[in-house]
């Protein structure tokens, strides 16, 4: 391995990319987060020709169990490694279930002086045609590439490069499960060729890491929803509610009444869409409260929740000022 190669740090958190099964013919029955990062790297010999790769096992979890504590730990390790002048980039291996949420958190909180690239796999490491090794190799290629600098947090999977803000998992099992519905991928990776076709949306500012996490939850609008969930959340001290609304942010009148009551008690209410793509219209000033809740714009409910968590942690009063809440949502 040449000392002239860029130094890349791999932070491992577990997930399917580190999963294993006793049956190589199965891609659905396996145990996630069992293979240590050292073994993952050894399975990809071409890495030695791309970068000087060092690894750190930050966690070993199934990403369905992702936590705020692990997000904070990742942020700390990114800060540690990015402060070292000879580190050219950071790769994070992650499970696919909550990858888009972790990517959004890092996008909002990390200055990213060097490329930070998340990658994952839809098939465990022991599966026939496992996708993890190539995804890991491609992620390192992108993290080491000069054109990746200044583009914030990226996700590299299935030979595509996605912006952390845009990407979402849209299939339960396919290797092409991740898409960026709003603008498509930023670029692609094919062998040693890394190409960016567009730039991500610029970030207005970096949000601070929370010292305490406010209670923010998601409810859905559908045919005749009850108000039990909203009332229970308010009683539990919820500070923010994201609505996975129908269509273009439409909220059932019964659920809207419950949310309006919550808003009058200072709860920040944000409408997203359960459709998976498109912008939610901004509230018209003259409309009644159930139709006038703030819009998450093109963020899906899960990404909108991450943003609302961080906004309320930084400014708990946003729930009492819908106009200021909308302005803050629109800045990210």
From TrEMBL:
SMART domains: Asparaginase (SM00870). Residues 7-199 form the L-asparaginase N-terminal domain. PANTHER family: 60 KDA LYSOPHOSPHOLIPASE (PTHR11707:SF28), L-ASPARAGINASE (PTHR11707). GO terms for molecular function: asparaginase activity. The active site is at residues 16, 96. CDD domains: L-asparaginase_II (cd08964). It comes from Cupriavidus pampae. InterPro entries: AsnASE_II, Asp/glu_Ase-like_sf, Asparaginase/glutaminase-like, Asparaginase/glutaminase_AS1, Asparaginase/glutaminase_AS2, Asparaginase_C, L-asparaginase_C, L-asparaginase_N. This is L-asparaginase 2. The keyword Hydrolase applies. Residues 216-315 form the Asparaginase/glutaminase C-terminal domain. Its EC number is 3.5.1.1. The keyword Repeat does not apply. Keywords: Hydrolase.
